[in-house]
Amino acid sequence: MSPAERLQSLFVAVAALVGLAAGVLLPIETPAGHLVLPALLVMLAAVFVQMDAAQVGEVRRAKTLVATSLVLNFIVVPALAWALGQGLLGGQPDLRIGLLLLLVTPCTDWYLVFTAVARGHTGIAAALLPVNLILQLILLPVYVLFLGGQAAMVDAGTLAESVLLVLVVPLALALLLRWGSARLKGVDWRRRHITGPAGRLVLPLLYLAVFAMFAWQARTVIDHGPVLLALLPPLLIFFIALPLLSTLAAKLFKLPAAERVTLVMTTTARNSPIALAIAVAAFPDRPLIAVALVVGPLLELPVLALLAQLIRVRTTAPESDSTAVR
Question: Any bridge partners for residue 106, and if so which?
Answer without folding.
Answer: 270
